Amino acid sequence: MSAQGCQSAPVLRERGQREVFCGLTSIVWLHRKMQDAFFLVVGSRTCAHLLQSAAGVMIFAEPRFGTAILEETDLAGLADAQDELDREVARLLSRRTDIRQLFLVGSCPSEVIKLDLEKAAERLNAQHGPRTRVINFSGSGIETTFTQGEDACLAAMVPALAATEKRQLLVAGALPDAVQDQMLALLSGMGIEDVALLPAARAEDAPAIGPGTVVALAQPFLGDTLAALERRGARHLPAPFPFGEQGTTAWLAAIAAEFGVDDAVFERVTAAPRARARRAVAQAAAPLADRSVFFFPDSQLEIPLARFLTVECGMQAVEIGTPFLHRQVMGPDLAAIAPGPTLSEGQDVDRQLDRARAARPDLSVCGLGLANPLEAEGLTTKWAIELVFTPVHFYEQAGDLAGLFARPLRRRDALRLEGAT
């Protein structure tokens, strides 16, 4: 890895029209992760349709999310939205007695009419606590991208977490259960047993925070959560994110060094999965070598994924766009990316489209709203949102991650071959 890489590279900052999902989308994976939580979106029918469409796979199960619809009378100020919200919450909690955490999720409509959900959460906590804790956060897409919903949710939980002085590792960021189990098994093999998780599956398992807490981020979009944890005395452990064999090894090595794990123990625990990951990446990434990739800003995974593709898969990055560039969080991954690509923060979608058309990259990683138009222009695309919903962290998923990027290129090559015959 380069000593500096792209750490000191200039950043093109754009503040124009953006093409991203809103933070409500994060509820789709958060409500599966927190088993005794319920996410009540205070929004419009459009918000409800978005969640129902994004989480359509839950149609045969009773989901742990819903929408308190703001009607025209609410939006016009002809009804007391706070009173109506109280009634909806009381009705929900009387029917769903399993709810221990109730999240009031702000939306674009609730923020436009200045509905004070923080005040509502305080009032509802007094009514329904301590059995059910009521927390508010914003999932509005007015100024944010969709992964910031998780960041806002976790950051809102931090102030009420219990205090502790003990030395511990806290892993922050929602991971699929199978991936989380793999991570905990690796840490346990190194002798690190007492691992706190944020978010926890249940309210009773919520972590305690204090000056002995060392935070390893599992997701790169948790800047506000990290700041909230640091205000509670926790300390950030900088590391590349655990994508691919090298990223995972560096992430685990930073933790091992912090907790004094012997080099021989680290090698014994990681050698076999590292070897499997290297083989899997080498096999899956064959179509990626020497191909160019262009990242549109979407998920905030762009920088660590660009590190994975350029360092481990042999791709050439043309532009790495990200909604927000948090240097404290992204520094280790930036240091590993060789100088050359344009770094951009924010988006002016028309200007960025012009740059992509001029570059004609082999692969464009972008949101759903841009994929079809770019495909119609002959540019091969990868949906960025799929990289959030698919298990891609740590060793056992390294080959799958490379395969997600290789698949569109294989499809394009196959279509060209078919057309030639």
Write the layout of secondary structure elements.
Layout: E1 11-15, H1 27-33, E2 37-43, H2 45-54, E3 65-69, H3 72-75, H4 81-95, E4 101-106, H5 108-112, H6 117-128, E5 133-138, H7 148-157, E6 168-172, H8 177-189, E7 195-198, E8 213-217, H9 223-231, E9 235-236, H10 244-258, H11 263-284, E10 292-295, H12 302-312, E11 316-322, H13 327-336, E12 342-347, H14 349-359, E13 363-366, H15 368-376, E14 381-383, H16 386-389, H17 398-420
Parallel strand pairs: 1-12, 2-3, 2-4, 4-5, 6-7, 6-8, 8-9, 10-11, 10-13, 11-12, 13-14
Helix pairs in contact: 7-9, 10-11, 10-12, 11-17, 12-13
Enzyme class: oxidoreductase
Domain Nitrogenase/oxidoreductase component: 28-378
Binding site for [4Fe-4S] cluster: 22, 47, 108
Short description:
This protein is an alpha/beta fold.
What is the CATH class name of the largest domain?
Alpha Beta
CATH architectural category of the largest domain: 3-Layer(aba) Sandwich
CATH topology of the largest domain: Rossmann fold
DSSP helical segment count? 17
Mean pLDDT: 91
Q: Give the spatial strand order of the biggest sheet.
A: 1-12-11-10-13-14
Q: Which runs of at least 5 residues are low in confidence (pLDDT < 50)?
A: none
Structural class: alpha/beta
The proportion of strand residues reads: 15-25%
In angstroms, what is the radius of gyration?
A: 22 Å
The total domain count is: 3
Instruction: Write down how many β-strands occur, each being a DSSP E stretch of 2 or more residues.
Output: 14
CATH-level-4 superfamily name of the largest domain = Nitrogenase molybdenum iron protein domain
- Determine the fraction of residues in helical runs and give it as a percent range: 40-55%
Which descriptor suits the 3D outline?
globular
What is the rounded distance between the termini? 43 Å
Biggest sheet character: 6 strands, parallel
Organism: Pseudoponticoccus marisrubri
Cofactor: [4Fe-4S] cluster
Pathway: Porphyrin-containing compound metabolism; bacteriochlorophyll biosynthesis (light-independent)
Pfam family, one: Oxidored_nitro
